[in-house]
């Protein structure tokens, strides 16, 4: 028997990305359940026969947009892409949200595994009387601001009954004039009592984030040798390439993390935070500077063209507030460290993590009109929902934010409408958009607007939260040369080893290759990568993650590559290792579909011969 959630829903479902599931069984091993997310619903499936568990929620699922303790008028995109954790008889969940002004709040909730009823909630945007409420200048922020969500997964200390929750930016991402303050609990590691959801401690790694510096992965729970003592710690990787090493019982840093003054010149209405916490140790696993001497030079022509563009961006210091003159974001918006996370060798306390070392530009523009004045209603809807990713000119940025210029040549009107409702790849569902707005947007994108029939009538209420945002970012523009290679000298992707006892970076090696550049004599340059590593007791670090469609094994002591194998599609996931009858296996999901490479639908397992 199988289960298709589309057959159990009266609504059209957008599947999008799903990074895993959760499993629970009772003490007798008779009740076995699989939990996973589809769009904004959490489903419970019988692990024995695959059928829905009808006494969980409503006919086997719960709607996660409900029970968020927000005004009923608030609506927005919500997706459950990443599994939470199970503690005793509770599911503890985060969620993926919009990153714009219309975002829902990212509150953390626990649900009963048997009934689906909410057991507790922790407000990541604090409400009156709660700790952290004073970190927002606007005392109604809890009613109006969204984000501060956990989209990456979380880590559970089952023995202590503590769940550690990393969060993302408060929304909107790049303009904080409507959310002044340090913005707790955005960009924070939060320690919660797993039984009750009660606050224990937090550490905020970016104050009043204006650069989309979400915490990108669940933290690693480790024990380290620090100043002659064994410390139960937490290692949190970041997009910036930092590792925050904290005592997991109280949140105190093991190595000094000074609050460093950062640039303050900002757009009108903005109020940047004056300092940011920069770790002294562990050493960063990504380069921290992108200067003119670092601009790519695969050819004299490419270098000349890149330099002409490089000098047009005025600000290179990290944590410079967004501006119309432009900033360098390095590592770029995706990181640095990304959602694949890190692996830790528990015997040596060495952390292994892959990194992207590619720059992007951050350029702010005056927000376009969303009230329909002088523009068609379809363009008005586009400006409201789409412009932050696909840009004011519809050209997007690479394969992750594709161009919409000639969408009518690729999809029918019905197909465009379906993508908007259901979402696709990293694009969330916009099923909450009104039918009138959706029809106007589809007409605009499909180039079927009929201006003479009144399509220039505004459909956007001028008092929406979006109308309060005076600036938007031009787009997620990665700095690449005319051939699409990163506009910085290699390595572009790396695998790194960090000693958590000493805080020292032990080694860094390129990860990923381009055969055509090797033929030209550039060697292994590394590449952008998605997915994390796994380390084994036998001394190997396994990782796929690269668009060259390979999986590799590295010596965990030296970083030397020892083995590689071609995959049917890129393994943009983290490998898993397991043992059956004393034989160890390694498995990787080969989904591809990013970084310009083909999609796949295979799992590939490896083992030593008998």
Give me a quick take on this structure:
The chain has 7 helices and 35 strands. With 610 residues, the protein is mainly beta. It has a 4-stranded antiparallel beta sheet with strand order 1-2-3-4, with no helix packed on it.
Task: Give a description of the structure.
The protein is mainly beta. It has 7 helices and 35 strands. Strands 1-2-3-4 form a 4-stranded antiparallel β-sheet, with no helix packed on it. α3 crosses α6. The longest helix is centred in the middle third of the chain and has 11 residues, at 300-310. The protein is globular and about 70 Å long.
Q: Radius of gyration, rounded?
A: 24 Å
Helicity level:
under 10%
CATH topology of the largest domain: Methanol Dehydrogenase, Chain A
The biggest sheet, with number of strands, parallel, antiparallel or mixed sense and barrel status, is: 4 strands, antiparallel
Structural class: mainly beta
The tally of structural domains comes to 3
Q: How many beta-strand runs?
A: 35
> How are the strands ordered across the major sheet?
1-2-3-4
What's the CATH C level of the largest domain? Mainly Beta
Shape: globular
**Mean pLDDT level:** 92
Distance between the termini: 34 Å
CATH superfamily caption of the largest domain: Quinoprotein alcohol dehydrogenase-like superfamily
Number of continuous helical runs: 7
Q: Which architecture of the largest domain would the CATH scheme give at its second level?
A: 8 Propeller
* Strand-residue proportion: 25-35%
Poorly predicted runs are: 452-463
């Amino acid at each position: 028997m199988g289960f298709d959630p589309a057959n159990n829903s009266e609504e059209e479902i957008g599947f999008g990305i799903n990074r895993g599931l959760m499993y629970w069984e009772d003490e007798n091993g008779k009740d076995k359940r699989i939990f996973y997310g589809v769009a904004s619903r959490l489903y419970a499936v019988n692990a024995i026969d695959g059928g829905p568990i009808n006494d969980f929620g409503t006919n086997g699922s719960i709607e996660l947009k409900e029970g968020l303790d927000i005004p009923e008028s608030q609506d927005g995109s919500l997706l459950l892409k990443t599994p939470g954790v199970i503690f005793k008889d509770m599911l503890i969940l985060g969620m993926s949200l919009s990153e714009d002004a219309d975002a829902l709040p990212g509150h953390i909730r626990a649900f009963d595994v048997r009934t689906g009823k909410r057991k507790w909630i922790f407000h990541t945007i604090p409400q009156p009387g709660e700790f952290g409420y004073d970190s927002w200048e606007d005392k109604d922020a809890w009613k109006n601001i969204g984000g501060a969500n956990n989209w990456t997964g979380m880590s559970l200390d089952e023995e202590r009954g503590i769940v550690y929750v990393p969060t993302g930016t408060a929304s909107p991402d790049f303009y904080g004039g409507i959310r002044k303050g340090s913005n707790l609990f955005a960009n924070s590691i939060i320690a919660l009592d797993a039984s009750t959801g009660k606050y224990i401690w937090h550490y905020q790694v970016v104050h009043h984030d204006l650069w989309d510096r979400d915490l990108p992965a669940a933290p690693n729970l480790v024990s380290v040798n620090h100043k002659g003592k064994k410390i139960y710690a937490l290692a949190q990787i970041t997009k910036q390439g930092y590792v925050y090493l904290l005592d997991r019982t109280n949140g105190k840093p093991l190595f000094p993390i000074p609050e460093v003054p950062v640039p303050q010149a900002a757009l009108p209405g903005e109020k940047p935070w004056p300092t940011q916490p920069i770790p002294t140790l562990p050493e960063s696993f990504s380069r921290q500077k992108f200067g003119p001497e670092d601009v790519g030079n695969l050819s004299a022509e490419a270098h000349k063209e890149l330099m002409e563009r490089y000098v047009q961006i005025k600000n290179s210091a990290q944590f410079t507030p967004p501006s119309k003159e432009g900033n360098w974001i390095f590592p770029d918006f995706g990181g640095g460290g990304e959602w694949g996370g890190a692996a830790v060798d528990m015997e040596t306390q060495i952390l292994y993590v892959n990194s992207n070392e590619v720059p992007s530009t951050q350029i702010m523009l005056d927000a376009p009109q969303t009230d329909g004045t002088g523009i068609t209603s379809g363009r008005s809807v586009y400006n409201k929902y789409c412009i932050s990713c696909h840009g004011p000119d519809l050209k997007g940025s690479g394969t992750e934010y594709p161009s919409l210029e000639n969408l009518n040549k690729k999809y029918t009107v019905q197909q465009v409408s379906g993508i908007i409702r259901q979402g696709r790849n990293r694009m969330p569902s916009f099923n909450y958009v009104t039918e009138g707005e959706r029809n106007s947007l589809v007409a605009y994108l499909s180039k079927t607007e009929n201006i003479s029939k009144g399509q220039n009538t505004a459909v956007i209420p001028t008092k929406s939260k979006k109308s309060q945002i005076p600036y938007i970012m031009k787009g997620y523009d990665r700095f690449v040369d005319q051939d699409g290679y990163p506009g910085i000298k290699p390595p572009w992707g790396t695998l790194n080893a960090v000693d958590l006892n000493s805080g020292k970076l032990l080694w860094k090696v390129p990860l990923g290759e381009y055969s055509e550049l090797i033929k030209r004599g550039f060697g292994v340059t590394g590449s952008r990568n998605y997915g994390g590593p796994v380390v084994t007791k036998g001394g190997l670090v396994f990782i796929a993650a690269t668009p060259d469609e390979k999986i590799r094994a590295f010596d965990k002591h030296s970083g030397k590559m020892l083995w590689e194998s071609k995959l049917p599609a890129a393994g943009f996931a983290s490998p898993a290792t397991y043992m059956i009858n004393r034989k160890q296996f390694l498995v990787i999901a080969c989904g591809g579909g990013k970084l310009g490479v083909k999609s796949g639908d295979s799992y590939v397992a490896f083992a030593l011969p008998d």
